[in-house]
Amino acid sequence: VVRAHGERRPERAGRPATTAAHPAHTKRGSLAAVARAMAGNASPTGYSVDGMGCAAVDEQLLEHEGHLKYRWEKFMETKGRIEEAEGSLEEFSKGYLKFGFNKTPSGEITYREWAPAACSAFLIGDFNEWSPDSHPMKKDDFGVWEITLPAGTIKHGTRVKIKMRKSDQGWVDRIPAWITYATQEPQLGAHYDGVYWDPPAGEKYVRQNPRPPRPAASRIYEAHVGMSGEDPKVNTYREFADDILPRIKAGGYNTVQLMAVMEHAYYGSFGYHVTNPFAVSSRCGNPEDLKYLVDKAHGMGIRCLLDVVHCHVSCNIEDGIAGYDFGQHTESSYFGTGDAGYHWLWDSRLYNYSNWEVQRYLLSNLRYWVDEYGFDGFRFDGVTSMLYNHHGLEMEFSGDYKQYFGMETNVAAVNYLMMANDMLHECYPGIEVIAEDVSGMPTLCRPVKEGGVGFDARLAMAIPDLWVRILKASREGKLKDEDWSMHDIIATLCNRRYTEKCIGYSESHDQSIVGDKTIAFWLMDAEMYDGMSTFEPPTDVVARGMAMHKMIRMITMAIGGEGYLNFMGNEFGHPEWVDFPREGNKWKHDHCRRQWTLADTEHLRYFELNNFDKALQELEEKYSFMSHEHQFVSMACEERKVIVAERGPLLFVFNFHPTESYEGLEVGLGMPGKYRICLDTDAWSFGGAGRVGHDEDHFTSPGGPQTFVGPYEQEPRPCSLKVLSPSRSAQVFYKVPEDDIDMSLSSAGENVHNLRQPGGLRVEPIGSMPPPRSNAP
């Protein structure tokens, strides 16, 4: 576990607190020796023989060797059957080239649908004037219905459905499960129709830009296309591409994560009650419009991640694939039966991940979004629900490994995730796949070949919970600022598994929804509406809110993970909550938009918060501290409310005390030399008080001071530095290269401030950068 040094924690989801040999292996030596032996136990293909290669980085896994070997055996067994029947996992995951609507070289249209519970099936639509029996389909031995039509029979953009007879003689009309586009009639309450999408050559969007290389650390801008505009309406893919992508680029983010792209009949679900997994959300445009968005992002050097929902689907049987469940046995259905097929909290259906055709459907879904639209990776939603039979409901994860590897583990779902990550990383070496998991399951972000689940990173979900807990208690008067625990902050920010990457974030999109509060709202509440003009001095509430908003974001990015995520608008403290159109608000979009004008208006403090976020992203761009292996917290002083941390080549000093400033504060650090400030939350240009001079050189002295992280005394650092640390502020220091010591002080000060120059903020003197770091994966 990356952590504050000196603390000895109880055993949690990380490195074990002891290295005593496991009783079963005492004759073979220590756990470490056994783990090393297992790590080298790989087949000629590079895959672990028994799935225990991950024990090389976590010896505690040996205590659950039986479960991990069983998991691996089932994974290899499933993969082996697929390779035997389909040739390879890669070929198996191209199901979209076989199922749904496809054209033969001669132009004939073939439609295939897996619906083993149907007794009869007919293709209906505009092309045959919705005739119920003119185009019957044939069923094979595997429950796949098929029909082939002459070229040109179905016109591009026309509506289609499949009509099926259930065993009870009842008939139902359903949207094809593999449909790539579905639309709804404009009248309220109308159902969706599948749309045959095959535009002529002149209307097909052709990609023009190559994929950007994967960055060493992803700075992710989480965005909802529909609510991204300033006008009270649903924004489109093309409007997002033309108007919002330039903002994301100017803000310094290198990745955009798109929410609510997979079609969902209920807009208020935030895109998480998916009805048609292969279809783009028609509210925002058509498939060609989405391709334009992704390609334009690539042209700007921005990678695109899709928020993919494979943990459940909407119960909506009229508009989605839930309609293919006729109450049949689970082996003939996309879904499980009973509790295994229904999520009581989400009111949604759950996939049967052990089913062959479900595996084909979901793996092909991933390939489709990458191949057809050019996405560069995924953020898997609701992974905790997939990993466990209890779905994480009414469950508190303590870090005990028995909670992760036992009878409550959904091995079939874990195996599906292993296959998904194995396939994606083999087919697309530069892809990035992130898991939304709150449980902290060990091995989740270790490579599949060594027995891990294969994700590249997990979201550090405990961090936003920490800030909400602190800010809520402060707002309710239960916690004074001077009583914030520095040790608790460090313990949460640094509590992540060794060699398993995390994406840090200070607040989630859920906090933006009506009924909850963003960090800015917790800090400033109603004063955000009339106290944000720079023409008037800030009130105490606004001054505190501005300071803490910047500090929380900086410390989260500094030591909270190996990547960073921000939800659209939170970077400048967007004052409105998110309230999707619904009956309760008379179906209005007034609170389902983003007020970008606030961030563009120079006399508003939103402008200053936005500029600070730009500078923070540029700091990472220039120094690559998030991808650096070096992280060391040397001080978390409860009395002074000071945290000092080294990350990569930078030194971060945080003073959370509400009133006390410290002149000549002695802090420890690892490298001797001359240091200067490269970023200051208290700078005038960021709405601060300007209490720190940016033209001062700081020289180290041998030997560090005595420091503590909470109650734990630290070994002194090799060097010390004396700095000015104003209350409620944070400063970042960089080591001046030896050949840059003659840099003019006036130029340094000018470039640190660069007052009110949107898009052109510099966070260090020109020429003082260390040698550039590689962005290679």
Commentary on this structure:
This protein is an alpha+beta fold. Helix content is 24%, strand content 19%. It is built from 16 helices and 33 strands. The strands form eight sheets. The protein has an eight-stranded parallel β-barrel with strand order 10-11-14-18-19-20-21-22. The protein is globular and about 85 Å long. The model is unreliable at 1-29 and 742-777 (pLDDT under 50).
Helix content: 10-25%
Q: Name the average pLDDT.
A: 90
Oligomeric state of the chains present here? single chain
Q: Class by helix and strand content?
A: alpha+beta
Q: Based on DSSP secondary structure assignment, what is the total number of beta strands?
A: 33
Beta-strand residue fraction: 15-25%
Strands ordered across the widest β-sheet? 10-11-14-18-19-20-21-22
| CA distance, first residue to last residue | 23 Å
Gyration radius, rounded:
28 Å
Q: How many individual helices?
A: 16
What does the overall shape look like?
Answer: globular
Uncertain stretches:
1-29, 742-777
Major sheet size, sense and barrel closure: 8 strands, parallel, barrel
